[in-house]
Amino acid sequence: RATRNPVVFPPTPGITGSGCFTAPIPFVIQDRRVAPSVSLSQVANTSCDGNFDGQITVTASTVSGPGAGANYDFIWTNDPDGAGPLFSASDALNQASPYSTPNTDLIGPGSYTVEVTNLVTACATTSMDPSWLRK
């Protein structure tokens, strides 16, 4: 609702229109968030012991508008042994895309889940591939 401002002093309600309210007017606020598109690729583990040597590459992009060309946070929310020490994928903050897990990570066979957040828009996408790195 809007209120008309006084037009003359002193205002005379009902005569100058001062202090009158408009009728309520509905409007819709559109949701125009643009979540990043994410694709995953991998290099399979070749190790026969616990020194897993696989690698995951996450490619993120924000097609247009605010956040296009921005950096991303890559947060791993799940790996095959949960929070255990056997598998590890390092989070990466404020990184350009594509991002690949470093050689020091223990990327073995199983399912991994990553949340990718555009640092300009704060929009996020979670991506998972259940067929990750099968041995």
Explained architecture:
- It contains no helices and 7 strands.
- It starts with 36 loop residues before the first strand and ends in a 6-residue tail after the last strand.
- With 135 residues, the chain is an all-beta fold.
- Helices cover 0% and strands 30% of the residues.
- The mean pLDDT is 80.
Secondary structure blueprint with pairings:
Layout: E1 37-43, E2 55-61, E3 72-78, E4 92-95, E5 99-100, E6 112-118, E7 124-129
Antiparallel strand pairs: 1-2, 2-5, 3-4, 3-6, 6-7
Q: What is the helical fraction, as a range of percent?
A: under 10%
- Ranges where pLDDT stays below 50 over 5 or more residues in a row are none
In spatial order, strands of the major sheet run 4-3-6-7
Average pLDDT, all residues: 80
In sequence order, what are the helices and strands, one letter per element? EEEEEEE
Radius of gyration: 26 Å
* Share of residues in strands: 25-35%
Shape type: elongated
User: Given the structure, what is the number of helices?
Assistant: 0
Task: Report the sheet with the most strands, covering strand number, pairing sense and barrel closure.
Answer: 4 strands, antiparallel
Please tally the β strands and state the result.
Answer: 7
What is the straight-line distance between the termini?
Answer: 64 Å
